[in-house]
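[job 0412] stage=fold_complex status=start
inputs:
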Amino acid sequence: MELQSALSELLPDPEQVSVGETIRDHHGQDLSYVRKGLPDVVVFARSKEDVSRVLAFADSHRLPVTPCGVRTSLEGHVIPVEGGVSLDLTQMNQILEIRPRDFLVRVQPGVTRMQLNKALKPYGLQFPLDPGADATLGGMAATNASGTTAVRYGVMRSQVLDLEVVLANGEIIRTGGLSLKSSAGYHLTGLFVGSEGTLCVITELTLRVYAIPETTVAVRAVFPHLSAAGDAAFDMMNSGIVIGRIELVDEFTMDAVNRAKGTSYDLRPTLFLEFHGSDAAVQADLAIAREVCNDSGCVDFIFETETEARNQLWDARHDAALAVIQTAPQKKMKVTDVCVPLSELSQAIRAARAIIDAHGIYGAILGHVGDGNYHVIFMVNPEDAKEMRVAEEVNRQIVRYALERGGTCTGEHGVGLGKIAYLAEEHADTLPYMKALKKLFDPNGILNPGKLFKRF
Amino acid sequence: MELQSALSELLPDPEQVSVGETIRDHHGQDLSYVRKGLPDVVVFARSKEDVSRVLAFADSHRLPVTPCGVRTSLEGHVIPVEGGVSLDLTQMNQILEIRPRDFLVRVQPGVTRMQLNKALKPYGLQFPLDPGADATLGGMAATNASGTTAVRYGVMRSQVLDLEVVLANGEIIRTGGLSLKSSAGYHLTGLFVGSEGTLCVITELTLRVYAIPETTVAVRAVFPHLSAAGDAAFDMMNSGIVIGRIELVDEFTMDAVNRAKGTSYDLRPTLFLEFHGSDAAVQADLAIAREVCNDSGCVDFIFETETEARNQLWDARHDAALAVIQTAPQKKMKVTDVCVPLSELSQAIRAARAIIDAHGIYGAILGHVGDGNYHVIFMVNPEDAKEMRVAEEVNRQIVRYALERGGTCTGEHGVGLGKIAYLAEEHADTLPYMKALKKLFDPNGILNPGKLFKRF
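[job 0412] stage=fold_complex status=done
writing structure:
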């Protein structure tokens, strides 16, 4: 109660501070298997000044602060494992400026990607990154998210030109500018992107946006086996055509989709593709893609150009995670997120399947084939210690396989709570310097404590 | 002599250490107007162990170390202004591994981009970044270089997946991995890229490479005036076609080219374009580009598909800087490097022309129109204090104009010695943290002292 009133005094509106059980409970969990950790209090920030005052207070009182958006994170990033303040930024959801002739927007961190795309559409513009969930842009920057379009547009770190952030001591700073490139000094913008709320709280982002292509074509290409799909993917990447998305969905996932949606898709490895550009260019690229797929023994090649039919075709891919969740609705989702060198992907997916089978559990596999990033989704009961142990063992073996080949434990979901040990293994060289950076920007360790590393 | 023998003892071969006057003199200058600063000794590193031993020695003796490649930098980055060691990395020029199916290469820092492209060609691959000079890849990473293809492939920071670096204390660490994306912890790779030799010495790079497109077409499009060219550039960017390069050359530069090469190009603002992809896609994009150019009053639209003719067409752009140098061969080059929001570019170039004219000097303008980055090249005599003052005043006004519009003082050349004051102005918020980072990684300030900031 004391904390609640102390925080309320810092903010314009007492409604911005809540200790209600339901709200605290909501803010104690994300989309993942990670068991909840309740905050003592939830603060709804409405301005950078709110954030600044809360952090300055927290810093002087050594009070943990865990920033969050719509909490679609998959590794427990937003769970306040040490209690304290859950700093909710969803009310900072204004699109501050659209600069169509600069291909830029300025947004508050609580704006979601779909909200932004809706606002951009009248300008013929889009923010193409698509991690699946309708995440906030602040959250996407915090984890360096990407998703199905990274093969064409790159990851979140490549989209952020400028950040306004509040540091642990309450100081508000800007890190970048409005030009599309810069070589002016150390790249603090890129350091803060992907820092998972442990170095600063993002209060504003300047992002690149892109022209909506004249034509977009979606393709579903079915293959007799995994390596045929993998070969086709490589040959397409190597052909010099412009690929908008290239996703691999395995037969187990297709089965989950059929069961969830009542569809009857082929139970075989399937590539979901998207091509975009000028109409003639897309037709040309589509012809090459079809040829490449056929050369790899593709058994079915379906394409759609009209928006609705195209969306329907992609539904199977878009709803895949949801479909897998529906195989065990009473459980929670655990998702691996390794990324391997491109040439290793088919083999890595086969190895993952063998690991899953050896442990007798159910797992669906989805891959961003253009990046070497794939996910195994399994449904777990966080209260069942044995089930959690098996799931973690499967994850551990999949991560180890990736690390042995120069890959990473996380392509896009971030470290959070779930990959602390793997980060230490993957970046043994730089971990001491990551901890030194943490100490530099957050000497009292109030920002999202317990994430990325346990101690620093 | 004492220093020479101390360093020689650290290295396998006494030939690796030189105090010869000619060699020291070479290592006291770069391509730019900056007056030379002689090193006491030049060390030619041949391995990471060499670098490590030299740095450990230098760190314990507080001896300045200025790393360098082929010294094509344009702001004095490689000039050892505080004496000490010029650490020459050009003998570390091995291409260590080409991984065609991963679209990756591993190289030593002294490999130049043309050397790499020659080795990649048999694989149908390319490293597309083109800053003009045949710079070393280590140097390009150190300044976050880019050039004419950034509009398509991004800047150097987006190409580097992994670095092996030696820290000031001699410690050798790896920062990244072989996967195309990662969200594993703080992005040290991106922090070291662009750090201009002030945080570490790069001893190995893992870089993305790309399929050579099936077809490439080069275009020269001549416009009646600057804003027509600017409008055409924007409309092309907005059309959703894939642009490989899009460069603006002003009439003054075309004049210098004509004089240097005996050509008779139109003395009007000219866009040099490149389109690439599958043959049909390129033909389609080319048709759209022509239409867009015509709509903006283009008076001439010449395109070439065959390699030789294409290169010839691009000669005027490629050799533009050289042509400007030939207008005053006894002088040295000073180049501005601001980058502004895209919509501001035409106006910024007009303003730059007015600033140049108001000061009665000769300046040629070239622009990377897809990025908002443009250069004014003027020839100066570094010994002529008045001429240097005028040139700096012109630069100052051009930078001020860019900063007032959210731009940057340097789009791709870096800060070096020449933009220390502008960096402080542009990044007043983050400068204290840049200095703190410098202190963290190089507490004794031995690495490239005097660059980026005077003191930290």
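[job 0412] summary: Chain A touches chain B through 96 residues (CB under 8 Å).
[job 0412] exit 0
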